[in-house]
Amino acid sequence: MESTIISRLREGRFVLIAEIGVNYYDIADKMGISNMEAAKLMIKEAYGAGIHAVKFQTYKAETLAAKDSPSYWDRSEEPTGSQYELFRKFDSFGEKEYRELKEYADGLGIEFLSTAFDYESADYLCELMNVYKVSSSDLSNIPFIEYQAKKGKPVILSIGASELDEIERAVDTIRSVNDRELVLLHCVLEYPTPLEHANLLKIRSLKQQFPDCYIGYSDHTKPTEECDVAKVAYNMGAQVIEKHFTLDKTLKGNDHYHAMDPADAKRILESIERMDMLRGSGELTALDSEAGARLNARRSIVAAKDIAEGELVTRDKLTFKRPGTGISPTEIGMVMGRTAACDIAEDTILKPGMLRDYPGGEDDG
Fold first, then answer.
1. CATH among 3.40.30.10, 1.20.1250.20, 3.90.1210.10, 3.40.50.970 for 288-354
2. How far apart are CA 245 and CA 23, in angstroms?
3. Which of the 8 DSSP states describes residue 204?
């Protein structure tokens, strides 16, 4: 199955990725269904909302975090104080389960991918994905970035909590072994990200600094009715937006409290579609719909007084009035100094045939 993400990027079209992550565990608990049923339901809901791709997180707690690793999220939303303890709650899926989810997503027609957090998952996910996604948390894990880049697939790299030299080092590492499409996602590692910390102008800076990369935004702000974060990000140049996805934003824990739900996703996509309509093509030309205004709202050269046949036309005998159906004011130099081919009454719109030897006139040539 061809990558929807990459094909849309090549065509200059917007991409919305639903970061399901491990939110399906909580959905399963709430609904009294299995984790697999919940994961599939979330894929189905993402597809129904028009989302282009779904992304999971593939890890085992013991290979990801030390047992005394502290939290870095809002403890009022997710009370778990240890990364290890949090990740251990959500690491039961392995190759078999992700293969099943991949096949389910393919059947619906939505792209599947998952962030690998260890070498084993990076290996088995290779067969299941068209694109690798590297987490901000692994931006400085250069050996692991290189390992995934060597798989020869396009790479999406989140760059949260990073300095420019760190981004450049990661990009150079990828480029040294991989010439496929590279997407950099601006990201703020605050969960949730306060609106005043979104720093969306950074998207424009990334476009200038890395002109050979596609640029996007991994959004950890809480959704708003106006979709203003997504709209500003898109206007700054983000062609991809990745956002956590849930079916219930009121659920405590993990990534529900700053996630979009299907209704949010639909609003984002509708907002981007409207922005595309408003932005237009950017072509420097008049629209067909402006033809009437172009003709009638512009001015023509008009006789400021009566001009007799054979009389020399001088500047003091001319003025400019609407509509633009006669000789344009841009041709004033072609009009002055010619003689009238007929009597021209005051307030008459000049036409080529009214002037002797005027190009396009009856006696021309």
1. 3.90.1210.10
2. 8
3. H
Whether 254 and 90 have beta carbons less than 8 Å apart is answered as: yes
Distance separating alpha carbons of residues 38 and 93, to the nearest angstrom:
13
- What residues form DSSP beta bridges with 182? 155
Domain positions in the chain: 4-279, 288-354
- CA–CA separation, 225 vs 216, rounded Å? 21
pLDDT by residue for the chain (365 residues), tens digit each?
Answer: 689 999 999 999 999 999 999 999 999 999 999 999 999 999 999 999 999 999 999 987 676 666 677 766 567 766 767 777 777 777 889 999 999 999 999 999 999 999 999 999 999 999 999 999 999 999 999 999 999 999 999 999 999 999 999 999 999 999 999 999 999 999 999 989 999 999 999 999 999 999 999 999 999 999 999 999 999 999 999 999 999 999 999 998 778 999 999 999 999 999 999 999 999 999 999 999 999 999 999 999 999 999 999 999 999 999 999 999 999 999 999 999 999 999 999 999 999 999 999 998 765 44
CATH superfamily of the 4-279 domain? Aldolase class I (3.20.20.70)
Asked if 25 contacts 90 with a C-beta cutoff of 8 angstroms, the reply is yes
Record the tokens describing residue 251, joined without a space: 């659920």
Q: What is the largest CA-CA distance in the chain?
A: 102
